[in-house]
Design brief:
- This protein is of the alpha+beta class.
- It has 3 domains: 191 residues, 2-Layer Sandwich (Nucleotidyltransferase, domain 5); 183 residues, Nucleotidyltransferase, domain 5 (2-Layer Sandwich); 156 residues, no CATH class.
- Helix content is 27%, strand content 30%.
- The strands form 6 sheets. Strands 10, 11, 12, 13, 17, 18, 19 and 23 form an 8-stranded mixed beta sheet that branches. Strands 1, 2, 3, 4, 8 and 9 form a 6-stranded mixed beta sheet that branches. Strands 24, 27, 28, 29, 30 and 31 form a 6-stranded antiparallel beta sheet that branches.
- The two termini are 34 Å apart.
Length: 587
C-alpha cells in the first residue's frame, strides 16, 4: 500500500471509473475534497442486485424492445421471470457487445471471435449500445452516492456538472476504439462534445489499471522494494490482458515503467462457455435436450464452471427438474453428468494462452521478470489459477493473486491511475510510421524488384513509392515527455494544391522485424489516423526544377508522435516565419 497526498485542488471534484466488461461491469469512484486524502470507493448496490452473484459488479446485459427502447439493464436483466417477459414482449438481448469494438486486424485480433459473439440488436450500433450502458452506470452511480453519503444529495449537486470520467479498455484497443468510446460517452450525456468536455474523459488500459490495483492491494514485496519485474495478467470475461512493469527504484517519486509490449488475447472466461457449447452441441445432438443447450450453458456458467477444481472428478450441471432424464446422455433428475477431463478441455485454450503470454513477456522484456500477479473475474477460478501456477512455477516465477476483490481490480485501478499516475514509461506494442516515396537506388535489389513503382517527381528526381518509414519501432520504451519525429515533404506544380492537405499516420501490426515495403505483409498495415490541415496561409517560395523546366512548390513538414498518457497524440509540424506550428490530432 502506497501513501497518497491530500487533494490540492481549489474545489470538490468527483471521479467516476466505469469498467464495462464483456460479461460483468463495475463502478469505482473518489470524492476529492481540498486538503483531504482521496479514497477509492466502489458502487456496491445496484437495482435488482440482490438476485445475482458477482459481488459489486453487474451483468453487462441490455434488453431492448422491438422499437429499440431500453427495457432492462444489468442485474435487472437477470431477475426472476425476465426470460418469459422478454419472450412475451419480443425483446432483444444485447450481451458481449463490448467485443464488437475489437480491432479486426493484426495478430490476436480475434478473427475467430466473429462467429461466436452475439449480434447487435437490429438497427443499433455498438456505440449506441455502449452509450445506453454508460448512461445506466451513471444513473447507478448517482443513486448510490446520493443514498449512501452524508448529505449525498447536496454532494451530488455540487459535482454533477463537472465530473471526470475514466474508461478502461483491453490492452489491444487503440485510437479507433477510444474514439468510439468517446462518442458513446458523449451520446450518453456523460460529457458534452466540447474541448472542456473531452478533457474530462480519460482512458486507461486494463493492464495498467490492474497494475495500479495491485500496487495498492498486494504487489509482491520484491517488486515494490527491489524493482523486480512483474507480469500483470488481467483475466476477464472476454480478454486476457498481459502487461509487465517494474518499479523505478531510483526515482524521487514512486513510479513504474512498462518493460514489455502489452498483449491482449481473446481467451477470457466466455470462451470456456463457447468451448462447452461446442462440446454439448455434438454430445447432445441426438438427445431431446439439444433444444435446452443455451439454458444448460447458462447453468454451467453460474455453477459448474465456478466450482470446477479437479479434472479427475465427474462434474454436474443442474439445469432441470427431477422429471428430466435421459440415461443415454448421462442426464438424471435434471442433472447432466460430464467427465472432469472434458470440462478441463474447455479451460485448456485459456490456460495455454496465459502461460505462453507470460513466458513471451519474460523473453521480450527490457528487464528481468520474477513475479506474476493474476487479477480479474476469471482469475477467481481455482482450477485456472492452479494450472497456471503449476505451469509457471517450474520457470522460477512467483505466481500469486491478491485476496482483495480481484474482480474489482480494473475499476479500482482506474481510479488509482487517475489519482496516483504511477506509470511514467510505456512500451510501444506496434510499429508506427508513414508511407512515403524515397530516392530510387538502382544498386539495391529490393529497389530493382519494384521498378514498376518508380516515377519522376515534380522536382525531377527518380523516386520509388510505397516505402514504409518507421517513426516509432515496436517494443520501444517511451517516456511520457519523449517525442518521436520524422521529416517529410510534398511537392506540386501549383501553389493551389497546398490550400489544405491531409496527412496520415500508419502502423504495422505484423511479425516482420523491420517492415519496409507496403507490398510485404500488406494486410497488417492499417491507417491509424488522418490529420487535415489548412495550409492556405503558409508562405511557400517557388523552387526551380533540376532539369530547368520551370518552378514548383515544396512543403517540408514533420510527423510528431507523443505518448502523453495512454492516448497517442499525432502532430504535424512545419516552420512558418521561423516558428514551429503544431496543429494537433488525437489518435
Amino acid at each position: 500500500m502506497t501513501s497518497r497526498p491530500a487533494f490540492s485542488g481549489p474545489r470538490r471534484k468527483l471521479v467516476l471509473a466505469f469498467d464495462v466488461g464483456t460479461t460483468y461491469s463495475g463502478i469505482s469512484y473518489s470524492v476529492l475534497d481540498p486538503g483531504q486524502v482521496p479514497e477509492i470507493k466502489g458502487v456496491t448496490r445496484f437495482p435488482a442486485h440482490e438476485h445475482i452473484t458477482g459481488a459489486s459488479k453487474i451483468p453487462t446485459i441490455i434488453y431492448y424492445d422491438r422499437s429499440g427502447n431500453v427495457q432492462a439493464v444489468g442485474a435487472e436483466a437477470m431477475r426472476e421471470g425476465i426470460y418469459e417477459q422478454a419472450e412475451d414482449g419480443q425483446w432483444v438481448k444485447a450481451e458481449w457487445f463490448k467485443l464488437h469494438l475489437r480491432s479486426r486486424v493484426g495478430p490476436g485480433a480475434g478473427v475467430e471471435v466473429s462467429s461466436n459473439i452475439h449480434p447487435l440488436p437490429l438497427n443499433k450500433t455498438v456505440v449506441e449500445v455502449f452509450a445506453d450502458f454508460l448512461a445506466y452506470l451513471f444513473d447507478c452511480a448517482a443513486s448510490y452516492i446520493t443514498d449512501t453519503h452524508p448529505n449525498g444529495v447536496d454532494l451530488w449537486a455540487s459535482v454533477k456538472g463537472d465530473i471526470d470520467f475514466v474508461l478502461s479498455h483491453p490492452n489491444g484497443w487503440e485510437g479507433t476504439q477510444q474514439s468510439q468510446m468517446r462518442k458513446a460517452a458523449i451520446l450518453s450525456g456523460l460529457i458534452p462534445d466540447t474541448t472542456a468536455g473531452n478533457a474530462r474523459l480519460s482512458f486507461v488500459t486494463e493492464g495498467e489499471a490492474s497494475l495500479h490495483f495491485a500496487i495498492q492491494n498486494g504487489l509482491p514485496a520484491g517488486a515494490m522494494k527491489n524493482g523486480d519485474g512483474v507480469v500483470i495478467v488481467d483475466a476477464g470475461g472476454g480478454t486476457i490482458d498481459v502487461s509487465s512493469y517494474r518499479r523505478n527504484t531510483t526515482a524521487a517519486k514512486e513510479s513504474f515503467e512498462e518493460i514489455a509490449a502489452p498483449q491482449c488475447h481473446f481467451h477470457g472466461s466466455v470462451f470456456v462457455n463457447i468451448n462447452a457449447h461446442r462440446f454439448l452441441e455434438n454430445y447432445l445432438a441426438e438427445s431431446p435436450f439439444i433444444d435446452d443447450i443455451d439454458h444448460i450453458i447458462r447453468c454451467f456458467d453460474k455453477t459448474t464452471k465456478l466450482r470446477f477444481r479437479n479434472a479427475e472428478e465427474a462434474q454436474y450441471v443442474k439445469f432441470g427438474s427431477t422429471r428430466d432424464n435421459d440415461v443415454n446422455y448421462n442426464i438424471r433428475f435434471g442433472q447432466l453428468k460430464l467427465l472432469g477431463s472434458d470440462v478441463a478441455l474447455f479451460f485448456e485454450p485459456s490456460i495455454e494462452c496465459i502461460v505462453k503470454a507470460v513466458l513471451e513477456q519474460r523473453r521480450t522484456a527490457h528487464k528481468p521478470i520474477s513475479h506474476v500477479v493474476l487479477v480479474g473475474g476469471f482469475a477467481a477460478s481455482d482450477y485456472m489459477f492452479n494450472k497456471v501456477h503449476s505451469a509457471l512455477v517450474t520457470s522460477g516465477l512467483n505466481i500469486l493473486r491478491p485476496e482483495n476483490h480481484v474482480n474489482k481490480a480494473v475499476s479500482d485501478g482506474a481510479i488509482s491511475f487517475y489519482l496516483d499516475h504511477f506509470v511514467r514509461t510505456r512500451v510501444s506494442k506496434i510499429t508506427y510510421g508513414n508511407f512515403c516515396h524515397i530516392p530510387y537506388n538502382p544498386n539495391a535489389p529490393d529497389h530493382r524488384e519494384r521498378l514498376s513503382k518508380t516515377f519522376i517527381s515534380v522536382s525531377g528526381h527518380k523516386r520509388i513509392s510505397d516505402s514504409f518509414d518507421v517513426i516509432l519501432p515496436k517494443n520501444t520504451q517511451i517516456s511520457e515527455a519523449k517525442e518521436f519525429r520524422k521529416s517529410y515533404f510534398r511537392e506540386s506544380d501549383s501553389r493551389a494544391d497546398f490550400k489544405s492537405a491531409s496527412f496520415s499516420v500508419w502502423c504495422y501490426r505484423g511479425l516482420v522485424g523491420e517492415p519496409k515495403w507496403k507490398d510485404v505483409d500488406t494486410k497488417n498495415y492499417t491507417k491509424l489516423c488522418t490529420i487535415d490541415i489548412d495550409l492556405s496561409r503558409v508562405p511557400l517560395t517557388p523552387r526551380t526544377k533540376i532539369n530547368g523546366g520551370g518552378s514548383f512548390y515544396r512543403l517540408d513538414y514533420d510527423i510528431v508522435l507523443l505518448f502523453g498518457l495512454t492516448e497517442l497524440k499525432a502532430h504535424i509540424a512545419w516552420k512558418e516565419n521561423v516558428r514551429s506550428l503544431l496543429p494537433r490530432a488525437f489518435v
